[in-house]
C-alpha cells in the first residue's frame, strides 16, 4: 500500500490511520493558555516538564503528550 503524504510548511507529513497514530513516539501539544478556537480541548500534563498542555479529544491516547517548548528545546539543542 502506498502511504499518502501531505506538505505542511514545507515538511512532508505522512497521513496514517488512527490505529497507526497510537504507535507514535509522542503527540506534540501546545501549552494551556495558547490560542485555540476550540472549547472542547483536553488537558493533561506534559510528559517531560509537567506543564499543562491542550490537545484535541480525538488525539491518540497511548503516546505521551509533550509540549512544543520541550520538543523545541530537546531537538534544537541537539542541532546547535
UniProtKB/TrEMBL annotation:
Q: Which organism is it from?
A: Sphingomonas vulcanisoli
According to UniProt, the name of this protein is: Uncharacterized protein
Amino acid at each position: 500500500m502506498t502511504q499518502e503524504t501531505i506538505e505542511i510548511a514545507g515538511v512532508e507529513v505522512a497521513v496514517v490511520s488512527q490505529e497507526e497514530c497510537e504507535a507514535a513516539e509522542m503527540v506534540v501539544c501546545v501549552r494551556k493558555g495558547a490560542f485555540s478556537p476550540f472549547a472542547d480541548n483536553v488537558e493533561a500534563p506534559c510528559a517531560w516538564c509537567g506543564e499543562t498542555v491542550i490537545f484535541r479529544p480525538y488525539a491518540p491516547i497511548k503516546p505521551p503528550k509533550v509540549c512544543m517548548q520541550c520538543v523545541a528545546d530537546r531537538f534544537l539543542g541537539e542541532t546547535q
